[in-house]
Amino acid sequence: MARILVTGAAGFIGSHTADLLLQEGNEVWGIDNLRTGRMSNLSAASQSPRFHFVRADVAKEKPCDELMEKAKPAAVIHLAALVSVPESFEQPDENFRLNLTATHVIAEAAHRHGVKRIVFASSAAVYGRAESFPLDERGITIPVSPYGAAKLASESLLAGYAESFGLTVRSCRYFNVFGPRQDPSSPYSGVISRFWEKLGQGSQPTVFGDGEQTRDFIYVGDVARANLLAATMPEVHSGVANICTGRPTSINNLVQTMARLLGREVNPIHVAPRQGDIRHSLGSPQAAQALLGFSASTSLADGLQALFLRRDADQHG
Ligand code: UD2
Fold it and tell me: What is the pTM for the complete model shown?
């Protein structure tokens, strides 16, 4: 059993991570300002006597300091963030505050309170407009959004803390994460949450462009397991790892898989390609295997099935 502090605990990935940590017998301290996170995501976690929650802003020093003092965690999983790439263009100050200042506040508080390990939620967005696939952690990183830039800067800041103060830092570059509790409400929300919402409303999904663009979709339960391994594995190596499957899926293929699982025809509406879209994104999963002993185990179809069942469970009480 370990005591783990999870920032952004009420978010999509944070709440799944908290659930898994609790399931494995750990004590979890969650912090979230509920800007985009929701308490309803924590309804299972809140049942546990080993779960504690504080509503506060991670970019502010005082609440973080108090929480580290109280919780004395063995590790921090830092997931709190401004999560939308388009929003990072619209609100660059908030992007800087929530995606970079917050990392600094967490690193400093961890160092002051003798916390030995930080797991950081980075993103495939650090690679920017890369041309050669699969993307490898040693490859070039030229972010093309304020979001990607802040994630890359946070990785560097934390790597500096690891070298300077002997902390273990694992930066996890998540690829296209999907699963229950993902918010579909913005036009820029993840494609699977958008498609699932449309199909639930009885309408057809919209495919941008020819649908032959590909992404590396990873199920949120696998991402939670990667976080757990990064936070609790006894090895002390710091490093950066893609959290991906290494398998490409085209948007057309995604539509077909959803139709097959639902047992009905899906006829997407094709519109012009989305401006600024990248054609392909595919990660190499090898470093995650070497650093964390992690490989994704949920297929796209199984992950979609879990998402569909959750919707049924929600609808039927
Ligand atoms: C990420 C960001 C996005 C933008 C983009 C820049 C997320 C969720 N999205 O998008 O905001 O910054 O990077 O490269 O982090 N698609 C459809 N129909 C839809 C929605 C999406 O066809 O209703 C396509 C879209 O054109 C893309 C693919 O699905 O080719 C995946 O879209 P996404 O927004 O889920 O993820 P991504 O990696 O393109």
Answer: 0.96
